[in-house]
């Protein structure tokens, strides 16, 4: 768009993460995705008269973990409130949420941006609430079907300050949030299944201004790419409106990823008054110091910290460190591996190379990788000790080990005859053959084309299927060339 750089983009995100607890937030019903509709619904979920909510302690714990990971302040006295509105898939007629006392206040999400470097996007709050059920509109069906399995599934809502200045930064925030919730093991982060959902508030203002424009809220984008596309589209739409002399009205719009267009849902004037009031059936919950301490102690080392450790302690390049701290399963494995070898760069290369390729081929993830860290360490030390060549190890031995994970790397290498041949007697015969069948090359070598040594090495490796020890091989070739003058 022509005038795009005359405007500053302002975005604030509201990210909902479904918490991966076993049961729902106020009832013992199973919290499972994809079950037969309306099978995880007790009388509490159905809001039968006289039923009372009972808070799932794990929900508080998970929310606190997220807050600690984001350096938020943890609220000690948590009061739950009713947010009143009618929703066909919410039988209670209200959502049981937090209003004035969100469990986490402040904090930040750190992102790395191309234009502004490393920045912290401030959080306004993280609060706990419950999900609604799902309305299902099927083709050829004139009634709407309702599945209440999702009603009462625990959520945290992460609300950022309007600190984001581009769609790329917004995408980076969602990516980082997904990484953190997965690391903490509190949410599977699956946006397609709706475990992680994002609403984006978007406004524009003339570059250099400090007065924010009216914001438009974009609803429920189900992938990170859609978050970015929806914001880009909304910015274009707003610029066009402003340029043609119109005003931006505060409204809520839904983005349609199939058409790339958005549609207005409701304007600010139509906004509900939710009439929040404290839930009378749930007493305020206090977060005591010992509990907080316990949760703090149980926190895993977070990706940002791991990255620094890998770079500083293990002297790995940033690229390696980012990859190795990408998921908990990868970093857990790598951490274990680094207890068994001090060859950190080799360990990293194995993870980023053969291991990653194998996982990609299988469509598997690290959590189901068949080899133990011990086996990988054995493999690394076989190469380190010159017993197996890297090429042979990565192309043959590695796959053989995966097929037979109980056998040690060395045993398997011996069994499959993949170990390096250091025996120069055997090599001499092979070298003799090669030199005999290339008399012109030998002559050229002696006439000064010394780099033909590389070609002889290549032939030797081919003949020995890569099993010749490179050092012995080179020595043997040089020795034999002198004899073949
Ligand atoms: P509301 O009163 O409409 O709920 P809030 O101030 O609570 O608005 O903010 C809701 C979300 O909108 C937050 O993520 C916040 O960062 C974002 N936001 C607020 N004002 C703007 C703005 N002018 N432009 C973009 N985002 C904004
Ligand atoms: Mg608000």
Brief summary of the model shown:
The chain has 485 residues and is of the alpha+beta class. It has helices at 57-69, 167-184, 224-243, 289-297, 303-312, 318-324, 328-340, 344-362, 373-384, 390-403, 409-415, 424-436, 439-446, 452-463, 470-483, and strands spanning 7-18, 73-74, 77-78, 81-84, 94-97, 104-105, 108-113, 117-130, 134-137, 144-147, 154-160, 196-206, 216-221, 251-256, 261-267, 277-278, 285-286.
Instruction: Note the main sheet.
Output: 10 strands, mixed
How big is the Rg? Answer: 31 Å
Helix/strand-derived category reads: alpha+beta
Counting DSSP H or I runs of 4 or more residues, the number of helices is 15
Average pLDDT works out at: 93
Ions, cofactors and other ligands present here are: adenosine-5'-diphosphate, magnesium ion
Gap between N and C termini: 73 Å
The 3D shape can be described as elongated
Q: Could you list the spans in which at least 5 consecutive residues all have pLDDT below 50? A: none
Strand content: 15-25%
Number of strands: 17
State the helical fraction: 25-40%
Tell me about this structure.
There is one protein chain. With about 475 residues, the protein is an alpha+beta fold. About 40% of the residues lie in helices and about 20% in strands. It is built from 15 helices and 17 strands. It has helices at about 55-70, 165-185, 225-245, 290-295, 305-310, 320-325, 330-340, 345-360, 375-385, 390-405, 410-415, 425-435, 440-445, 450-465, 470-485, and strands at about 5-20, 75, 75-80, 80-85, 95, 105, 110-115, 115-130, 135, 145, 155-160, 195-205, 215-220, 250-255, 260-265, 275-280, 285. The strands form four sheets. Strands 1, 2, 6, 7, 8, 11, 12, 13, 14 and 15 form a ten-stranded mixed β-sheet that branches. Strands 5-4-16 form a three-stranded antiparallel β-sheet, with no helix packed on it. A hairpin with a 3-residue loop joins strand 7 (about 110-115) and strand 8 (about 115-130). The protein is elongated. The protein starts with 6 loop residues before the first strand and ends with a helix. The chain binds adenosine-5'-diphosphate and magnesium ion. Adenosine-5'-diphosphate binds near residues 159, 161 and 201.
């Amino acid at each position: 768009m022509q005038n795009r750089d005359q405007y500053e983009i302002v975005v604030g995100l509201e990210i909902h993460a479904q918490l991966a607890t076993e049961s729902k937030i106020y009832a013992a019903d199973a919290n499972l995705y994809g079950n037969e509709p309306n099978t995880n619904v007790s009388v509490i979920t159905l809001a039968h008269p006289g039923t009372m909510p009972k808070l799932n302690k794990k929900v508080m714990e998970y929310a606190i973990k997220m807050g600690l990971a984001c350096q938020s302040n943890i609220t000690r006295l948590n009061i739950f409130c009713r947010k009143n509105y009618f929703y066909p898939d919410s039988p209670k007629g209200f959502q049981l949420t937090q209003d004035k006392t969100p469990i986490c206040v402040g904090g930040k999400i750190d992102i790395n941006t191309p234009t502004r470097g490393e920045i912290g996007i401030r959080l306004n709050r993280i609060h706990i609430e419950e999900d609604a059920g799902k309305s299902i509109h099927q083709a050829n069906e004139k009634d709407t079907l309702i599945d209440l399995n999702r009603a009462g599934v625990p959520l945290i809502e992460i609300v950022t300050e309007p600190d984001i200045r581009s769609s790329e930064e917004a995408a980076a925030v969602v990516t980082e949030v997904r990484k953190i919730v997965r690391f903490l093991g509190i949410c599977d982060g699956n946006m397609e299944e709706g475990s992680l959902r994002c609403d984006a508030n978007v406004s524009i203002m003339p570059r250099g201004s400090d007065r924010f424009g009216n914001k438009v809220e974009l609803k429920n984008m189900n992938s990170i790419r859609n978050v970015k596309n929806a914001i880009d589209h909304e910015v274009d739409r707003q610029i066009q409106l402003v340029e043609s002399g119109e005003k931006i009205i505060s409204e809520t719009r839904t983005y349609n990823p199939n058409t790339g267009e958005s549609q207005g849902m409701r304007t600010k004037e139509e906004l509900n008054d939710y009439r929040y009031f404290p839930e009378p059936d749930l007493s305020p919950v206090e977060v005591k110091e010992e509990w907080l301490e316990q949760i703090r102690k149980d926190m895993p080392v977070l990706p940002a910290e791991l990255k620094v450790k890998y770079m500083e302690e293990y002297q790995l390049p940033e690229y390696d460190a980012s990859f190795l701290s990408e998921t908990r399963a990868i970093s857990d494995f790598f951490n274990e591996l680094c207890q068994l070898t001090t060859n950190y760069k080799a360990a990293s290369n194995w993870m980023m190379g053969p291991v990653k390729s194998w996982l990609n081929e299988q469509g598997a993830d690290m959590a189901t990788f068949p080899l133990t860290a011990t086996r990988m360490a054995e493999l690394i030390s076989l190469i380190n000790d010159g017993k197996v060549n890297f090429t042979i190890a990565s192309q043959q031995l590695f796959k053989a080990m995966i097929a037979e994970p109980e056998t040690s790397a060395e045993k398997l290498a011996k069994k499959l005859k993949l170990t390096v041949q250091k025996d120069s007697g055997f090599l001499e015969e092979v070298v003799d053959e090669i030199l005999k069948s290339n008399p012109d090359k030998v002559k050229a070598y002696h006439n000064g084309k010394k780099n033909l040594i590389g070609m002889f090495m290549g032939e030797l490796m081919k003949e020995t299927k890569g099993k010749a020890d490179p050092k012995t091989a080179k020595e043997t070739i040089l020795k034999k060339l002198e004899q073949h003058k």
